Amino acid sequence: MGRADPEEGQLPAPVKPPDGGWGWIVLFGCFVITGFSYAFPKAVSVYFKELMKDFHVGYSDTAWISSIMLAMLYGTGPVCSIMVNQFGCRPVMLIGGLLASSGMILASFTTNIIELYLTAGVLTGLGMALNFQPSLIMLGTYFDKRRPLANGLAAAGSPVFLSSLSPLGQVLLEKFGWRGGFLIMGGLLLNCCTCGAVMRPLDMGMKRKMEKAQDKYEAKEMLPIGGKSEEGISTTDGTKKAKKAKKKPKKGKKLLDFSIFSNRGFIIYTISKFILVLGLFVPPILLVNYAKDTGVPDTEAAFLLSIIGFIDIFARPACGMVAGLKWVRPHVAYLFSFAMLFNGLTDICSARASNYTGLVIFCVFFGISYGMVGALQFEVLMAIVGSQKFSSAIGLVLLIEAFAVLIGPPSAGRLVDALKNYEVIFYLAGSEVVLSALFLAMATYCCLNRGKKKEPPLEKNPSAGGGSDTEEAESDVQEAEEHSSDNHQPAHSTDNAVVAASEEANHMAEEQSGEGGGCPEGDGEVLARDSCNADQTVERDSF
Fold first, then answer.
1. Least confident segment among 177-181, 379-383, 387-391, 495-499
2. What is the pLDDT of residues 191-204, one digit of tens each?
3. ∠ Cα 323 326 330 (to 5°)
4. Among candidates 271, 374, 261, 233, which has minimal Cα distance to 314?
5. Domain shared by 56 and 204, yes or no
6. Around 484, how many Cα atoms within 13 Å sit in the side-chain half-sphere?
């Protein structure tokens, strides 16, 4: 798998993920972006009462601000994928940080609720979407062997920021009012630009230039000074150009790759995730009101969400470490199924909890299972489609999830208003999550694993999509070493003379032999034997 030439309009070959180094800085940036993306729409809710008083609207009207943010975060997935494929992750994240910040700053000057929808809802939501998706793509670029742990640590940003942004918003509201709080929150969102700036792409440009210069230097050292040297250099360059010309057609990259729908694993994952989102967010949304209806005081009811967040902080990195184990990672889809099954059964078993102790136990187990789901959801998607197609895959998945987000929680709220019974809602939400877990596990076993057993083993093709970055990068390095061993020998003085003589004898053999496969006789017998040995050595090395 050769390296592409950017000057000829080809994409650079995938680089082996470093699994560390600057990747830890990228991981921290992804941690911050994930925290803002998931926690900010919930943290804004502390300003809703003041907004209701100033704009004379109801709670449902102000709740649309958070809903629009989440809808933009999920629904603009394909747009983010197209922009990332066209311009790269870093420029898109810088623009997203500016949009998110300017949305909150402009919201502090609004005079009606519609203007808040357009600024804090649409503009800020779009900005966070342009940050969230590219950060996950960069995380998959920098990590391969440690990717499950990296995903778990990055996902921990959501509960950490939720536990800090909500109290901070309350303090800002008391001291500066909602307008001052929005203005300061907009300033905090400028940190997304800083996180975008550290997303340095893995580039092979400098390495390719150094290798090209080294090739020419070794060619000059190998061959005698004069025409032979120039001929050797031109032959080396011609061989490289011929290889690049052959590989041009497969290097085109689409703005949005719909070919991932031909991947059965991706279809199974998408269906399962849609069913999951229908019920996953319902319990934490209704938990506080459910506790109040059972007679729990307001302060203690609000503390239940803090318990979930605190457990979630530790559950996500721990689950990432478990998923990274050698004997677990090949079966990460089944671990994800177990996490969803654990979450659904927690909802079902806790539906009849009627006291505060039972609700606390529910929050502990829900925090563990919810953290496991959050840590594994994108790791499973990366494992299915590979990092090369992840930018398109995550955009399409988020778009499909957006419909589930708009269907699940609102439908649950209407059922509560109609039935006046939270128990049925918990049963329904838990059943949906359990159904998604069973579907993913059974479909993965029946459609994927059995299909692999029936199919004969195929040769590894580095150009095929869906493979890991490590395997593709290692194949690049191996081919580069083979290419260098075929064309270059050590640049010692005695070896240079033998190689030059062998090549000259080889040319004489081709001219004298009709078939071109024999060795010359007569005066050049010794050199002919050397040239045959050299050719045989090259042939063995090439295999």
1. 495-499
2. 999 999 999 887 64
3. 70
4. 374
5. yes
6. 16
Domain final position from 451, 472, 507: 451
Angle at 33 between CA 32 and CA 38, to 5 degrees: 105
pTM over 0.85: no
Of 38, 303, 2, which Cα lies nearest the Cα of 157? 38
* DSSP for residue 516: S
Report the interhelical angle of 205-222 vs 227-246 (nearest 10°): 140
Tokens at residue 372, please? 């496991």
Report the domain count for the chain: 2
- Say how far apart CA 201 and CA 393 lie, in whole Å: 20
Q: Is residue 44 part of a domain?
A: yes
Distance separating alpha carbons of residues 488 and 486, to the nearest angstrom: 6
pLDDT tens for each residue of 433-492: 999 999 999 998 887 666 555 555 444 444 344 444 444 444 554 555 554 444 444 444
For 373-438, the three-class secondary structure string (H helix, E strand, C coil) is HHHHHHHHHHHHHCCCCHHHHHHHHHHHHHHHHHHHHHHHHHHHHHHCCHHHHHHHHHHHHHHHHH
- The chain-wide mean pLDDT, for the chain, equals 76
**CB 370, CB 312: distance < 8 Å:** yes
- 511 located within any domain: no
